[in-house]
Amino acid sequence: SSETLILGIETSCDETAASVVRNGTEIVSNVVASQIESHKRFGGVVPEIASRHHVEQMTIVVEEALEKADVTMDEIDAIAVTEGPGLVGALIIGVNAAKAMAFAHQKPLIGVHHIAGHIYANRLIEEMKFPLLSLVVSGGHTELVLMKEHGSFEVIGETRDDAAGEAYDKVARTLGLPYPGGPHIDRLAHEGTPSVKLPRAWLEEGSYDFSFSGLKSAVINTLHNAEQRGEEIDVKDLAASFQESVVEVLTEKAKRAVEEYDVKQLLLAGGVAANKGLRTRLTEMFETSDVELVIPPLSLCTDNAAMIAAAGTVMYEQGKRSTLAMNANPGLML
Ligand code: KG4
Ligand code: ZN
Fold first, then answer.
1. If DSSP codes are grouped into helix, strand and coil, which group holds residue 332?
2. How far apart are CA 24 and CA 307, in angstroms?
3. Average of pLDDT values for 63-88?
4. Is the CB of 272 under 6 A from ligand 1?
5. Measured from the CA of 301, which atom of ligand 1 is nearest?
6. What is the tens place of the pLDDT at every residue in 259-292?
7. For ion ligand 2, residues whose CB falls within 5 Å
8. Whose CA is nearest to atom 23 of ligand 1?
9. Residue 105 structural domain
10. What is the β-pairing status of strands 142-147 and 154-158?
11. Contact 24, 327 (CB under 8 A)
């Protein structure tokens, strides 16, 4: 038939996910089994626990995705799976499941880069118009990616230390907030005022790279210094100040890159794209611009398999195939 049905699988971190996507643009089913509750009491993702959950959930999640899509494996054109980057033990579960199914059902196998997936989540809500830029902000990544056509990715800037989400989670931990801390800081930030002076890492003139570890340390120092002096520090104001620094640097660099590369669209991607401050600032920034701003719904910003199927569809149409020799690759390059 003329339609392409791709089964996507994602297990790079703490979500076991499977999805069926039609023609790279339409979600037919999208199942995500989150493990957040199991990792919460440790204050972060425990790799060993993540792997174990993936093993338990993998088959259930795939069956549910096929069932909800009302299709059998026979009707699936190819299996797309996150090959990397991510936690190696977690990736292995998804990759091996995909290989086993591809072998058993004689289906093409496609290894997908996790970040390509985050970017392609946007294609599930809006047509992609090239050239475009994507601001990828997640727990593991902070990158500005230039795309001149489907399947082509040029990283024009990336973090030199912590990812934006990582900084959020570390600051939240210092403030005694539960994991993952991003949403909690976001909420507190809206109740406070950005009155604490914190640094902005602009780096060298013209650089699109990011750095968040200095900011993270500044927040921790501010807190400790106040404690030592016996002063009260308003956590809400500190959260608001931290968020303002992160959002200002992310949005200013994205805006500059959009102008320099003269792109048609700016796509937001990754878990930190759920941040209200970031979404609001970007929306204001591009309100009167000719550049189209695309922000996926929250469910497509955090890890899911529909985004992997969407990116995999383009690779499938471009004739890209992986062999059964494919391995999980935690250091995979975009
Ligand atoms: O993309 P994602 O689900 O997983 C990775 O691939 O890393 O991103 C998870 C990250 C976590 O660090 C979490 O704290 C952050 O996204 N996050 C947020 C918000 N919601 C999730 N950060 C800031 N504000 C939020 N509202
Ligand atoms: Zn992710």
1. coil
2. 9
3. 97
4. yes
5. 1
6. 999 999 999 999 999 999 999 999 999 999 999 9
7. 138, 303
8. 182
9. 5-119+301-317
10. antiparallel
11. no
